[in-house]
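Cross-posting from the modeling subforum.

Setting up a comparison between two proteins and wanted a second pair of eyes on the formatting. Protein 1 (sequence, then structure tokens):
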Amino acid sequence: MVFIDDIFADEVLDSRGNPTVRATVILSDKTEASAIVPSGASTGKKEALELRDKDERYMGKGVLKACENVAKIADVLIGTDPFNQAEIDALIKDLDGTDNYSNLGANAALSVSMAVARASSKSLDIPLYKYLGGSNALTLPTPMFNIINGGSHANNSVDFQEYMIMPLNFDDFENALRACAEIYHNLKNILHTRGHSTSLGDEGGFAPNLKSNEEPIEIIIEAIKKSGYEPGVDITIALDVASSEFYDEKKGYRLAGENRTLSSFELVQYYEKLCSKYPIVSIEDGLSEDDWDGWKILTERLGGKVQLVGDDLFVTNKNILKQGIEQKIANAILIKPNQIGTVSETMQTVRLAQRNNYKCVMSHRSGESEDAFIADFAVALNTGQIKTGAMARGERTAKYNRLLEIERRIIFGEYLGKHLFK
């Protein structure tokens, strides 16, 4: 019988130059595998705790305490069956003893959870997506490519955090990726020609200073057309507003880039105007995580036309998602494993969403690494969608390149872009 023989962790760097945790699991058959956890910039208040040292090292962002806690997890898991992921994750959860991993840190918990899954798949010589999803892991996710950054992901005048393109009218992931890479390069040329900065934000998108939150959409549509594709047919637009970042409970939504403040209803009206004018198919965090009344208005007015994704709103938490389902809030959920703490808990949230016809979008974080776990995870859970940044920077392309590899492996794989929003 194969068992967990050793677990250890070390402090490594993410794509923003901040420390994060890498856990390594060694099985009794000498299989060894590691996993690196990501870190977010705009984080929901109810996310599982990311444990930081808060001392002089790395400006307080060190993760040596989390690495030490991996040793505590090892004491519990060494000698156990690595192929029972649910049991492994339950043991980690019980050891922590809190709802949000405030003892061990979700970065410690998730690093071990992911590394165990990867080591187990490697031991059995089964691809990770198939190990986690079985023979039903067949759907290649339609990507959301973040090609213009704003908000907390960029030092510019744009309030909305992400402007993304989604390739729908394609038969496979490979050609969808190619088309969007062409658009990305044409966008760079357009920005350069107009004298805008082509420096990159945290997730690989460009971060120009533009005069409004609408102008990025117009420039993206120009790049789509210049690349030979039809906006709204071949390529559509998705937004991550991250509105919690500019929400004040007393004053409303402050759009600093446009020098105006809107109420919840006025912001919903603004979205309605944008959606009637441009081929927008998805809006993420259109209202604050604390503005549930506003979310009801948004869902009532746009939920039948547009995908409304809850990120800060739901934080990959099945209990909060259940409340949203009961109150008919949003119609989709962003899936970030480090918001909840383990592989198994992430899977539980996805299953709940899918049972209630909420779409799922597997997601990276702004602080990423070369670890491509979420690419396999998206296929394993048939989420149908993934967002993992622009087609630049190695921590982003690692996920896209892994999906290309998976597509070539799956004989009966499906790319559902054409049917995603029908």
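Protein 2 (same layout):
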Amino acid sequence: MPKKVVKKVTTPIHTGRRKSSVARVRIIENGKGAITINDKALEEYFGLGTLQFIVKQPLTLLGLEEKVDILVNVQGGGLTGQAGAIRHAIARGLVEVNAQYKDELKKAGFLTRDSRAKERKKYGLKKARKAPQYSKR
């Protein structure tokens, strides 16, 4: 008797990046508005209200705060970079869910990857651009 093959129905994973952080996001439609980051609630993972606001921006713009559940796996960088990466991934995922969201999200700048990163230190300098104090004598 042949074995029964069970197919797993999974939602697609969307990726967002900021500085050295990488976020992988699953968007579950018809949810209750729960955002889970690395198996913790949004409020537990990001204590600062500003970081919570950054993560929720694409959902607030489209009025989907209470309509979708979001599962996030984020790693690398600091908290601010991670919040930006999550926002980028959520925006990209929402466009894949519904292409009509693209214009609003693009205008708000959520689909553009913020490519700013820390500049490397140069030899002979104290930091990337800070030079040692000049002494005439």
